[in-house]
Amino acid sequence: MALGDDPGIGAGAAAAGQCLSQGQILQVIGQHQVAVRRLCWDRNPTARPSVGIAVSMTVAPDGTTQSVSASGDDTAVAKCIENDIRSNWRFGSVGCSQRISIPFKFVRQ
User: pTM to 2 decimals?
Assistant: First the structure.
């Protein structure tokens, strides 16, 4: 699932083969995106004008994150995001595991 795939899908039912709906996933991302930006991008001393990071994770049946991995243009930013997701992100308990991917794009203002 990419962050911008279909913003018209709400928090309704999940698609076939999925536990979480796109709306549920976007809700959790929305709860954490400002903190991730401040912690992992704003405090990062890189001179790069922009950074793209791809995150893959498994959401466990109890809503915790497992197997979180991040990679991209800046390893320090990727590792920071990975650690934040692993420590702080929780999805609703859905009773099954689901693999999701989240792209992050940061641009210096």
Answer: 0.81
CA distances from 7 to 4, 19, 31, 32, 74 (A): 6, 18, 16, 18, 27
Average pLDDT over residues 83-97: 92
Encode pLDDT of 30-50 as tens digits.
999 999 999 999 998 888 899
Find tokens 């709306």 and name the residue.
23
**Residue indicated by tokens 């990062």:** 44
**Domains in the chain with CATH codes:** 22-107 (3.30.2420.10)
- Dihedral (CA of 18, 23, 28, 33) sign: positive
